[in-house]
Amino acid sequence: MSNLKKNLVLFFSSVLFTLFLAEIILRLFVVQETKRLAIYDRDLGWRGKPNGNGNYVRKEDAINVPFSYNELGFRDDPLAPRASVKRRIALLGDSFLENLEVPYEKTFLALLKQELKQSSTDAVALMSQGYSTAQELKALQKFYDAVQPDAVILLFYTGNDYEDNLRREFAYLDERGELVFPENKDSWLKQQNLAFQRWLYESSHLVFYVKNFLASRAALKIEDESKKVKDESKEYKFSVTRKLILATKAYAEQRGVPFGLAVFTNKFELRDHQMEKTEFVERVAREAGIPTLMFTDLH
Exposed end of the chain (fewer CB within 10 Å): N or C? Predict the structure, then answer.
């Protein structure tokens, strides 16, 4: 038994040393791609690390862009005191708004904020890569009191927002077709485990590299629970999307805040002249009386 214990200690020590050495080597010689410095959020699934900063890298596209998050965990300037601005607009979105691929000063958000300065109006972004409409609504609910907006604008992208809206963890339609927002009933222990997994993935170069290697080279899909979707019909996608847009509108208007919509059309819809997804969300907005800006024709 004594020799067995010694051998086990030696074995596990060797494994730990090898992992440690691999971590050091990767940090020295391999730039981690698409690392976003995200944290687990029990309400939103994930968001950026509050006051965190890093570099977003995609070698294939020659992208190496520094980024930073504000105190809320979003790629935006620090939140100014509400009394310091005359008006404030809350922008809800995903990667279209986060724009990690370009320097912050060239993002849509930064350029808009610069334009709005003349009228003492501020824009605050609540967004993260991959957010669904439900997550964007939940972000508005979570940070509404901190932001105190005078208007809310939802940015909707027809390329993947319909599919992202199939995440049943955040919202789904029940058997009667009613919109349901499930509560997070995970135990404290599971929440800590999910938070640790997210921290490990974002902190360890080795874990990040192995996960992405298995996903890309071994065709092994390793996905966060919060990103899982359930295959549904086109009718379901359209229906849940319509109800989520209307629910976001209702939440804003219940607080006396006007609501608007900005729609970005998928480039493949434009190329193939198949505009069903764009036309549907445009129709939803028209029937609900939602002021809408359509980014359809890029010329």
Answer: C
Sign of CA dihedral 68, 88, 105, 261: positive
Tokens of 289: 């009386």
Q: How far apart are CA 72 and CA 198, in angstroms?
A: 18
Q: Is the separation of the CB atoms in 99 and 91 below 8 Å?
A: no
Cα 143 to the center of its chain, rounded Å: 15
**Which amino acid is residue 217, in one-letter code?**
R
Residues making up the chain, counted from first to last: 299
* Centroid of chain to Cα 215: 20
Phi-psi region of 36 (alpha: psi -120 to 50; beta: other; left: phi over 0): alpha
Q: Which uninterrupted H or E stretch holds 37?
A: none
Long-range contacts of 286-290 (CB under 8 A, 24+ apart): 288/245, 288/246, 288/249, 290/245, 290/249, 290/259, 290/260, 290/261
Is the pLDDT assigned to residue 221 strictly greater than 60?
Answer: no
Of 170, 154, 80, the C-alpha closest to 116 is: 80
Judge contact between 154 and 127, C-beta under 8 A: no
Task: In whole angstroms, give the CA distance from residue 203 to residue 16.
Answer: 17
In this structure, which amino acid lies at residue 89? I
Burial (0-12, 13-18, 19+ Cβ within 10 Å), 62: exposed
Q: How high is the pLDDT of residue 226?
A: 63
3-class DSSP string for 33-48: CCCCCEEEECCCEEEE
121 φ/ψ angles, rounded to the nearest 5 degrees: -110, 140
Q: For the whole model, what pTM was predicted?
A: 0.89
Hey, what are 36's tokens?
């976003």
